[in-house]
């Protein structure tokens, strides 16, 4: 339309018609407008693709300089301390801690560990903490000593917690005082292994456990000499983060210092600046939580930290701390949208939301209710060597394929006649895999070469190549946007956590009355992910004990991994290789009117599994009963 108007102006302008030079300029301008219009119509995301590619190129350039200097994220932090020592770095409850405060506190932690343990460069220390500044101070203190940190999930208990500690190779454990009783459950084994155990408190009467708060308070805040960590390299382990993976107990994914840099640049590529205040209420032991922390360091910005997510306090916190960027998982937005509407819903300074796992309908509802917030959806895994980002804001997409970022998709790698994999077609679901290379390495799991190898695919497209198997199904539309479809294998996601079905089955079958357990995830209308369900075969003559089963799973499993539904069967069907069949069970779900087997639902209030009636089912579907 603009081109047409300009053309009409030219026709009615005698000077333009009679002057060849002016006519040429106008025609050139018109041609450019028409060409831009064509590009915009044919490639509506072209400019965003270019902009994202430029940012990506700048990140690669910065990363190359980091490699040359062998800098870690700690070096970036120390640089921030020099440039703006008194700038607020951590906002927590009613306290504000500057970059200099954090530097001094982490020095005290490091010196306390030097004085009261014999840890040295290259060792690992496990930390069991909720979200609080000490979590961050301890991690920075460990990096200053050249040590790595095993970030234990505070939901783990007993056998699972001990397994997570042991597979990291740690010889020291530091726990928050609120987790003292949790540690006491595994303390006899830790004592046998001569593990040094500290609790962040001033007093502790438990034998084999020492106080740590007093030791930090008495330690010097003088800087730690650089030569203490002189052998740390970018490929050295920085942290161990636990992932359920596809089978068995949690595995310790190794994140190197280079991997932390890659995660830290996410905020930069989305346009977060040093003036932003980043709000985090997700657990710091998760990759997403740690990424927010290290990203804040990379940007030199401020982190507003909350101990746990609270939908009712979320926007109050954002106003209190003048938050401009928030971090989310899918459940975050759904919980916020389910709160009672307030006149102040749009009264905030939040301009951007970074995270993953939000449904398209919740995404739209979130924007309609809370105002224009730029949502940056991500896709990635803790141990993976690939990450996707939806930099355009296309609702529902987790990423976009452009000429800088190619992915290979195929469901359960289908081999052609030559033995190589075949790429999935546009619109067809496929297994997301990513080539393993020097630029995109796959480090794997600590002390678990068998599970590490299971994530590798060999001879995929050409002889000798290797690819990382994400275990996730995705698909690409005609505009090259990528969408998450489902997970494959023996795992499902609930409450923002990955749940390994084999781990839950193993816990259930330790009960005297249960012969077999087949665990899987089922869709619940209006809920993110899948709720856990277990099909059980009881031992002959044994009744189902709803109270005992609740007590058992509560003791050994974190809340998100406990089966919400139980189905009692006379026999569990298996495949020819004696693996439990799950597809039909998943399809049947938990509908009482369609299933003749006895069904039970977890009742947190009565601390029991109670019979699932049709009325209760309707209440779950309508949202009256919260899972």
UniProtKB/TrEMBL annotation:
One of its GO terms (cellular component) is plasma membrane. Gene3D superfamilies: 3.30.300.30, N-terminal domain of ligase-like (3.40.50.12780). It comes from the Eukaryota. The keyword Lipid metabolism applies. The keyword Membrane applies. Its main location: membrane. Residues 81-407 form the AMP-dependent synthetase/ligase domain. PROSITE patterns: AMP_BINDING. Keywords: Cell membrane, Fatty acid metabolism, Ligase, Lipid metabolism, Lipid transport, Membrane, Nucleotide-binding, Signal, Transmembrane, Transmembrane helix, Transport. The chain crosses the membrane at residues 23-40, 134-154. Residues 1-16 form the signal peptide. It is an enzyme of class 6 (ligase). Residues 503-579 form the AMP-binding enzyme C-terminal domain. It is a multi-pass membrane protein. One of its GO terms (molecular function) is nucleotide binding. It catalyses: tetracosanoate + ATP + CoA = tetracosanoyl-CoA + AMP + diphosphate; a long-chain fatty acid + ATP + CoA = a long-chain fatty acyl-CoA + AMP + diphosphate; a very long-chain fatty acid + ATP + CoA = a very long-chain fatty acyl-CoA + AMP + diphosphate. GO terms for biological process: long-chain fatty acid import into cell. Its EC number is 6.2.1.3. Belongs to the ATP-dependent AMP-binding enzyme family. This is long-chain-fatty-acid--CoA ligase. It comes from Esox lucius (Northern pike). The gene is CEP152.
